[in-house]
């Protein structure tokens, strides 16, 4: 009889202890999850029992993963805000100019000569607006890997000539001399269409910041792993302290705020070269000119 009573008592105690342990585990987990939700650090001292160390370790890992996702989301949110703000700033000027010129053209008393002049201004601003929108679209595609970007070993001479053809009219308008040192054509790892755009950006900047009757030179220098394509000018140059800033998205020097530009070209060029496993550098003496060097990988034998 007594043995039955003792056994029953032990079973009751065991059941009670099990319920107590479950409640205790629940309270421990609840406290740890509160720490995660409030972004407070989860430490081993939060729980005395060593048997829960594995649980704490996993909860800490979850907290770190969630924290990383939150930081990434906040960073992306700030980037989107910055992108929208910069896009608004870039588009505001040409849109305002087009509106102004359209209003002037709407006046009946304007002379035919002046009408043609303002119509030309509208076309120029529309072209600028189209260029900005296209550049922004390309930038987003490259950043988000939306557009297929195929890279292969391709002859470099035609890529350079394609870029020169696209800016030749601008060279002639400013009577700028363009020289290209003779070089042996070679296959370099790049996408011809996108890399031509890199060279166009660099050549357009060289033309833009070089005075009338200035000069621009192109030089190709093979190295062991890469080939360097230099585009140098004798223009206004870049201040030393700005050389690390010029490749930032939408960056424009305070000194060229009145010169037409968007601050997208160099950033876009850098994105393109990164996808080709190449890179770009800049050297300059303020007031004497600049030299941009594009490095493309040589054909792998």
Uncertain runs: 6-11
Using only CA atoms, what is the Rg? 32 Å
Order of helices and strands: HHHEHEEHEEHEE
Helix content: 55-70%
Your description of this structure?
The chain is α+β, with helices and mostly antiparallel strands. 55% of the residues lie in helices and 15% in strands. It contains six helices and seven strands. Strands 1, 2, 3, 4, 5, 6 and 7 form a seven-stranded mixed β-sheet that branches. Helix 2 packs antiparallel against helix 3, helix 3 runs parallel beside helix 6 and helix 5 runs antiparallel to helix 6.
Detail the topology: elements first, then pairings.
Layout lengths: L1 H36 L15 H53 L6 H33 L7 E4 L1 H17 L3 E4 L6 E4 L1 H17 L6 E8 L3 E8 L31 H11 L3 E7 L3 E10 L3
Parallel strand pairs: 2-4
Antiparallel strand pairs: 1-3, 3-7, 4-5, 5-7, 6-7
Helix pairs in contact: 2-3, 3-6, 4-5, 5-6
Main traits of this protein?
seven-stranded mixed β-sheet, single chain, 6 helices, alpha+beta, extended, 301 residues
How is this structure best summarized?
By secondary structure, this protein is of the alpha+beta class.
